[in-house]
Input
Amino acid sequence: MEDQPNGPRPLHAPATTPTAMTADEVLTTTRSVRRRLDLGRPVELATVRECLRTALQAPSGSNAQRWQFVVVTDADKRAAIGEVYRRACTAYLDSPSSAGSLFTDDPERSEVQQRVHTSITHLAERMGRVPVLVIPCLQVPQGTLPAGNQAGLWGSLLPAAWSYMLAARSRGLATAWTTLHLTYEREVADVLGLPEDVHQGALIPTAHHTGSSFRPAERRPLDEVLHVDGWRQQGR
Output
């Protein structure tokens, strides 16, 4: 994709200006938005490009930069990907593992998970209508993922994808981190004509959002998950 300057604006001038948020504010209010995506308002491709330029500053193992980003705006292709996602989401939500995650011994936690379940279903029914879908990918030599520990491999893609989401947040856009479509990854690859050596890492719907802004999410207290100089037994 090539930059398309509009009038006298320089080729690499920003199409949008990030809002004046602190780094902590951006980091703590970048939520997975599923029910508040504005499906009727277009997203400028120039803005997506700005966010991706920021993403390219993320760390990459050995500075290999094997990442590739597929941006989908074509209505028919978005609809086809949305149908794959809907089918994968239905299978996941009907699975025992999903059902088990919704009901815990903590009533408050269970209530939160129920809301997540509802929002996942909402997005699954609308994924194909989201204005922009971004798919971060890895291009792997010989096309085969290595056996064993792949943390370094995917750790060279996921920070860039998260940086994209942070940059989008700072420009008033909403995103969501999703991976359920990977159950049928090859089908999406066929829709987009991806080569065999390209592996998808996520599917990130991108849109303006409805309603007001976002607050930090409820999280477990830090001391419940913090271990200093070794593993701390629970209750000690």
